[in-house]
Amino acid sequence: MDPLFKGTGLRRKLSIYLVLSLFLIVADYQIEAMQKVRSWLSVAVTPVQWVVDLPEQSWTWVHDRLQEREGLLGENRQLRAQLMLAEREVQKLASLTAENVRLRELLNSSQKLDEQVRATQLIGVNPDPFIHQIVINDGSQNDIRVGQAVLDQTGVMGQVTATSPFTSRVLLVTDANHAIPVQVNRTGLRSVAYGRGDYNQLELVDITQTEDIKVGDLLVSSGLGMRFPEGYPVAKVTLVERDPGREFTRVLAKPTARLSLSRQLLVVSTAHQQQQELVEEQ
Predict the structure, then answer these.
(1) Which residues lie closer than 8 Å to 199 by C-beta, 6 or more apart?
(2) SS3 for the chain, per residue?
(3) Is the full-model pTM beyond 0.90?
(4) What's the sign of the alpha-carbon dihedral 122, 126, 131, 136?
(5) CA 115 → CA 47, 102, 118, 152, 226, distances in Å?
(6) Is 125 exposed, middle or buried (CB count within 10 Å of its CB: 0-12, 13-18, 19+)?
(7) 208 beta partners
(8) Which residues contact 4 (CB under 8 A, 6 or more apart)?
């Protein structure tokens, strides 16, 4: 118990405290010396106020830094997204440029021919490794007919074997069931190039030992059979193997068409095929 108020009641204590409080309040405003005391006390208490306010200031600083960091991270993510979009546009532009080059090459190749041509695009590949067949995005509704030749900008791809209203199937020259009449561009020697089920090989099986053919010779379509346009590149000879014990020379050739890469193609109708279509329409 406080000695000052020893033996006094609770009410008396409260009264004394109130009187002292009122006295200090009045003295603080009326007595000039008290203002100096208050100023000294404020100076003395200032470090305590700083210490008390330090946690809040620290938290505010950390909070502001975190918000700035989150803002910077968000801005960084946004910039990265914009960069990816820009890179995608650049890639798309490069793809469109390459596609335009391929289309110009196709146009140039079609100008070499007197036949009717139609630009088309590859949309599917037969997954069976033993069947070399592709699907194009034009069909009977676009006047695509069975037997028409299909070319890319570098050579003969194959021929149409089946059509539906909106798509067609094309058997590639390398399929084991495909054959195309060819001739050696250098000498005019005629033969037939058979598919071997290998995208990189065709075989000529009826070349005698005395025929003039050598590695590097260009094989072009001969036009015989009236399905493939005459004079279009088919393959280049890669192997000429003459064996005195055999009647025929073994000749292998690599297709000039980019069978596994080309997407923009041409469907060609020879003059004979166009005449047949006119007869059928009549």
Answers:
(1) 132, 172, 174, 255, 259, 260
(2) CCHHHCCCCHHHHHHHHHHHHHHHHHHHHHCHHHHHHHHHHHHHHHHHHHHHHHHHHHHHHHHHHHHHHHHHHHHHHHHHHHHHHHHHHHHHHHHHHHHHHHHHHHHHHHCCCCCEEEEEEEEEECCCCCCCEEEECCCHHHCCCCCCEEEECCEEEEEEEEECCCCEEEEECCCCCCEEEEEECCCCCEEEEEECCCCCCEEEEEEECCCCCCCCCEEEECCCCCCCCCCCEEEEEEEEECCCCCCEEEEEEEECCCCCCCCEEEEEECHHHHHHHHHHHC
(3) no
(4) negative
(5) 99, 20, 10, 15, 11
(6) middle
(7) 248
(8) none
Torsion sign, CA atoms 171, 177, 180, 184: positive
Please report how the helices 32-110 and 10-30 are oriented relative to each other, as an axis angle in degrees rounded to 10. Answer: 80
Tens digits of per-residue pLDDT, 162-215? 999 999 999 999 999 999 999 999 998 999 999 999 999 999 988 999 999 999
Residue owning tokens 């960084």: 76
Work out whether strand 149-152 and strand 233-241 pair parallel, antiparallel, or are unpaired. Answer: unpaired
First to last CA, the chain: 129
Which distant-in-sequence residues (6+ apart) come within 8 Å of 138 by Cβ?
118, 120, 144, 166, 167, 168, 267
Token couple for 244: 């005195």
Q: How far apart are CA 112 and CA 65, in angstroms?
A: 70
| Calpha distance 223→147 (Å, rounded) | 13
What are 253's strand-pairing partners? Answer: 202, 237
Rounded Cα distance between 99 and 165, Å, is 26
Q: pLDDT (tens digit, 9 = 90+) per residue, 230-260?
A: 888 999 999 999 988 888 999 999 999 999 9
